[in-house]
Amino acid sequence: MRHFLLIIGLCSLTFWATAQSSPEGSIKLSGNIINDQDQPLSFATVTNLTTETGVISDEEGFFYLTFQQNDTIRVSSVGFESAFIYFGDTAQANNYDLQIRMSEQTYELENVTVFAFKDVESFKRAILALDDLPEDSPKVVVPGSYDGPRRDPKASPLNPVSFIASQFSRRAKYERMAREAKQDYDRRQRLSHKYNREMVGEITGLNDGSLDDFMIFCRFEDDFIERSSQYDLVLAINRCYTDFSEQDTTDERN
Known about the structure:
Blueprint: E1 4-7, E2 14-17, E3 26-34, E4 45-48, E5 53-56, E6 62-68, E7 72-76, E8 83-86, E9 95-101, H1 120-128, H2 160-194, H3 197-204, H4 208-217, H5 222-227, H6 230-253
Parallel strand pairs: 1-8, 3-9
Antiparallel strand pairs: 2-9, 3-6, 4-5, 4-7, 7-8
């Protein structure tokens, strides 16, 4: 980042000073901060780096600050290069009115490579996970290339290309089996949460052996449990309980 050091008396800084001299006293500084288009810079920061105090310019870019002649003043604003003011022994007055022009700051960013995946390994896993590729793909023929019958090489350690391809294919198969097992486990967990022994016992009032007999008698399909609401399940359990009770009554009579 480039910084500009504003020294009183340079032609790049316009100021007006009173005739009163104060070689060792404090300096009263008022000013107006503008950009390269002569537009005021609102809420720019004017900081005394020596005392670590400062002020903020108003909406019109004006500010007022008192400091010692050997203090260093920094004027900064977001998106602009900072400017520095230092009087030192060049101070000939105790009251200055300045107009400070701020230049826009140019940022140079490093080159960034954007991938659709967070890393190469994620890309490989996504390719291996593809199991819905179209059976018929458009055939591309390169002029001058061989398009006759080919013999697929057998996978072996002596054929590294086919051996690696075989290993990747086997790995993809195992990963697909693991995903399917995980999906089936998650589905069983959801079904068990919606329809379980404790819930049926609370609805029917059955327990122990009678509850076990009812659970065997009243079997619902997994698809029905998955798509049914809790209200639909309660109604189905009550209807099934009615049939179960009638069957017990019939068995007792016989």
